[in-house]
Amino acid sequence: MAHMLKAQRAVAGSRIIGLGHYQPARVLTNDELASMVDTSDEWIRTRTGIIERHIAADGEGVGEMATEAARAAIADAGLDVDGVGMIIVASTSVMDHSPNMAGRVAAALGMTNNPVIIDINTACSGFEHGVAVADAAIRAGQVERVVVIGSEKLSQITDWTDRTTCVLCADGAGAFVLEATDDPGVGPVVWGSEPTMSRAVIVEEESGNKFTQDGRMILRWAMSKASEISRSAVEAAGLTMDDVQVFVPHQANLRIIEPLAEQLGLTDRTVVTDVQVSGNTSAASIPLGLSKWWHEGRIPSNAPTLLFGFGGGFAYASQVVLTPNRKP
Ligand code: ACO
Known about the structure:
Blueprint: E1 13-22, E2 27-29, H1 30-34, H2 41-48, E3 52-54, H3 62-76, E4 86-90, H4 101-109, E5 116-120, H5 126-139, E6 145-153, H6 163-166, E7 171-181, E8 190-193, E9 201-202, E10 212-213, H7 215-236, E11 246-249, H8 254-263, E12 270-271, H9 275-278, H10 285-295, E13 304-311, E14 315-322
Parallel strand pairs: 4-5, 4-6, 11-12, 11-13
Antiparallel strand pairs: 1-7, 2-3, 6-7, 8-14, 9-10, 13-14
Helix pairs in contact: 3-4, 7-8
Residues 39, 43, 47-48, 124, 163-164, 167-168, 201, 213, 215-216, 218-219, 252-253, 255, 280, 310-311 line the site of acetyl coenzyme *A.
Domain Beta-ketoacyl-[acyl-carrier-protein] synthase III N-terminal: 118-194
Pfam families: ACP_syn_III (PF08545), ACP_syn_III_C (PF08541)
EC number: 2.3.1.180
């Protein structure tokens, strides 16, 4: 006899109800980098747009930063920590594997409600993968609220003698709280990977667990493929480019962000360019940039916001989200 299993009652969707972020206090300037390797403020600014970046202290790890960003997002949502039933942490710079990073965050937050704990490693697009997984779990009726965190301590996987990479990398964390709703504020994800480019970004034993990349290959891919993926995400959400008010691409570098905004016809909208003062923080860059600009009052309420993450894997993920209702 064929069996049919009972499924949870599906809900219409999810939306963002809280945003939070954390950056280490220490700021590393281009001039300081120029005293460490053969580079200059001028080279870094013109090739990457980066002016300065934040670097974590000893003892300030992926977990500590993730916890602070989650705490801020949960408080922003007006909840206490047991108000969320699932923690998803996206990171590519995790050095300790068990407990996983989400479990470390649950313990550090002192949660007592047996939350689901999931880690995701799809590098610079990990956060958008996390939002998609959280949204799917909420839609399936498996959980009511999820905190999705991107947290990176890239400084610990950076070769500080390699001028081609050390000028890009930085540390920080950002988080969203998503909640079940009848009025969806997270659009369908457009996601995938390019297996032929799997070695474009590498952190592995053979590279001494340090980050190496084919910068030219990534730049070429972004300029030829990113706009099509982003357009598909806007279409999947039932919108047109005219509806998009905010664009938050992965903060890899300004030489990708600006031309991409131009290709998409979004230069007259709010384009988040936090990379200039935060560097590249991989999975953290999109929630960090959006949360900072949101709390600075630079992003309107209920604004259709296009997220586009890409990087190591070589993986990508893009979706449209609505910003929260701003509390008075
Ligand atoms: N300071 C001074 N000179 C440098 C530096 C530096 N920090 N780094 C490289 N150079 C030199 C190179 O040695 C080379 O010198 P040469 O011509 O004598 O050989 C010259 O500058 C040009 O080097 P390229 O690597 O060709 O520089 P390019 O113009 O491609 O810029 C960059 C490098 C910024 C990484 C570019 O390729 C890029 O924007 N790539 C996109 C990828 C990216 O942003 N990756 C981020 C991490 S992965 C991710 O987040 C998805």
